[in-house]
Amino acid sequence: MHQREFPLLKTSAKSNIAHLEAGAGIAGLTKCIMMINMATAPPNCHLNIINPHLTTEGFPVYFDTEQCNTGYSSLYCGVSSFGFGGTNSRADVYGYASKGHKAVIKFYMPKPNPPRVMPIGQDVFICGSWTGWSEYEAMEGGGDGVYTCAIALGDSRYEKFYLSCTEDTYEAIHPLIDNADQTAQVVGPDWDGKGLYWIIDGREEQVPAGTIYEITFTWTPDRKSITWEKVGESTDAKVLGYEYEHKFYMTGSFRKFDGYTQMKKIEGENFYEGTFKIGYRFREEFQIVRDADPEQAIYPSIPSCTSTSAPLQGPDPHGKGKNWLVKGSQHDTVTVRVSLVDGKCSVTVSSVVLGEKTWESWASWATRITQSFYLRGSFNQGRTTPMLPDENTPGVHRCRVILDDEGTASFYILVNEDEKLVLHPDEELSLVGPDLQATNHWYLEGPPRTIYEVKLDLLQPDRKKIVSWGPSGTSALVA
Fold first, then answer.
1. Do residue 349 and residue 378 come from a single domain?
2. How many distinct structural domains can be found in the chain?
3. How far apart are CA 319 and CA 272, in angstroms?
4. Sequence-ordered list of residues with C-beta below 8 angstroms from that of 461, at least 6 positions apart, any chain
5. How far apart are CA 76 and CA 305, in angstroms?
6. Which residues form the Beta-ketoacyl synthase C-terminal domain (predicted)?
7. Which partner for 448 in 194, 196, 266, 407 could form a disulfide, CB atoms 3.0-4.6 Å apart?
8. At which of 96, 113, 147 does a domain end?
9. How far is CA 381 from its chain centroid?
């Protein structure tokens, strides 16, 4: 046999379950499938050492005496079956691991379609979150392959959209990924665009609601491209989204999270109101959804939230499992009010037992004078050290940290010393939370026993720079 870089791993189902006569072959095949599924070759039961009288020199096989890692995520595995009547068979299986240390991560992407030849005068429609995905508007132009329209940012300060050759999703023109910017590949027309949208995010650019953007879509025989630019608050083009009145809905355990209950606009006020009754369990959970779109959920930062120390989040698609919790007597009426103005959202919940509580979105929550922040980490042996608020700059808090004898320190931040409200970094050092636990810590390195100052700037738009640090007494703080 030819030389192999790695030997074949040889094991037998018979060492585990004996000979099943007519069922022996299918037992071996089942074991092959399980080995591929885990990318692991189990040992031959009771085999500790090879019989010295067997000649295995030059035979590129390893007789498993312990569990072996195959080293690959995909592999072949085979079984031979020799029948008593002289019928022999062989089955070889190929597959990839779906469990264990070599499990393959499956990622499906839509297949890019080749550019479709554009008929002269082809209409292109645009549909977006500025009308709750309810209306298609024809874009202007198209004679030279260039289409334009203008949209105004709503109170959420971001808008999503896709294009279509018809007033439905069957001929959608969309990005290859969701929440795409102008650099994403444009694909379509096709019917694979569900959940794949472009996003114009005024929050990143720090622009207010009402800002107008002009969208330009270019469709030539060679390629498709899309761009948008801010044009201020005036334009000659028709502006989409100005006249549409968004709606708010509640969903919760009071209706088994099945469907939505529409909230009523309070005349003369800038908020919506809805009610529900507490059931026989004496507790209900709920969240709010804008335009009945689960991608625009409004929710607290932690599950089963009762504390106003947690900020409100959304509208966005990350609200799964994060609800407000209200307790009370059966049949108690709970009143919920929501307001969304220029990216700032607030939710007020009131009942006889609860009284009245208000949750606010990040910008308002960050500047509460009653809010306090504490560092916990290696430098204080897991205790808490308070951060001092900056008297001249709202939302800024500072704390000094002493590096250890090896010149390191790690920490995360607690809100109001609440173990359920933790600020911590993700893998890219962007601030996450407050939520239930710190999955990562910030790490400081420098000369041993150096005093560093940690700065928390809650109004910093770049979430990678909200937490920064530097040697105490310097003005340059680095994240």
1. no
2. 4
3. 20
4. 203, 204, 206
5. 50
6. 7-47
7. 407
8. 96
9. 32
- 335 and 383 part of one domain: no
In a domain, 104, yes or no: no
Entry pTM: 0.69
DSSP state of 305: B
Q: How far are the Cα atoms of 179, 247, 381 from residue 210, in angstroms, in the given order?
A: 21, 18, 49
Same domain, 339 and 377: no
Cα 453 from Cα 466, distance rounded (Å): 14
The answer to the question of residue 117 being in a domain is no
Residue that is written with structure tokens 């369990």 in the block? 281
- Residue from 204, 129, 154, 151 nearest 341 by CA: 154
User: Do 324 and 297 share a domain, yes or no?
Assistant: yes
- Which are the contacts of 27, defined by CB distance < 8 A and separation ≥ 6? 13, 14, 17, 20
Q: Which domain holds residue 380?
A: 373-471
Residue that terminates a domain, selected from 58, 76, 96: 96
Contact at 8 Å (CB) between 288 and 305? no
Q: Are strands 239-240 and 146-152 parallel, antiparallel or unpaired?
A: parallel
CA distance 260 to 298: 13
Q: Where are the beta strands (DSSP E) in 50-178?
A: 61-63, 68-69, 74-82, 88-96, 125-128, 137-138, 140-141, 146-152, 158-164, 172-175
Asked if 225 and 216 touch (Cβ cutoff 8 Å), the reply is no
Indicate whether 355 and 377 sit together in one domain.
no
